[in-house]
Amino acid sequence: MSVEIVRAAPQTARMAGAPQTLNMFSRLSPRALGILGAGLGSGLAAADEFGDGDGLGKDTAQASARFLGDLATTGGLAFLGSLIAPGVGTVALPALGAVLGLQDRAGKGAAGIGGGIYDALFNRPEQVLERKLALARKMREFDQETADMNSERMRQMMMLQTGLQGQLNNQADANALLQGLSQARY
Known about the structure:
By secondary structure, the protein is mostly helical.
């Protein structure tokens, strides 16, 4: 019975690198593969915008702007690289830009612009003011908590130092007494 299962497995198993999928990618031109890779990289960078807790609408605006900013920067660097050194430059200049962080900075700048546009269109000034006041209140509470912890720590350190100083004074008194006794002659 187990022999039949083993023989049947290769015929029914689905493989991740299916020949149709590999054949499809092998038929794409290098330019199309580059565009696909740039789009995928820009999409992954844009996905980072959804984790900052700004709300779905603003996050979507920021992600869209970041995707377009990253993609435009990569495309512009590829175009400039192909003008400088066709072939190698098309790949090398965007790669150099990625190492230097150009796409990331351009994408983050575009995300900021997208978020600003969203705020201008959909956020009323009183909502923005309420959020800023809530943030300021939280910061004050955090600062007060930090100050309280620091003063408690300082109080404990002073008590410890006072206790240590008392022990040193007692030890000095004991040493003086012993020294006085050793010098006294019977």
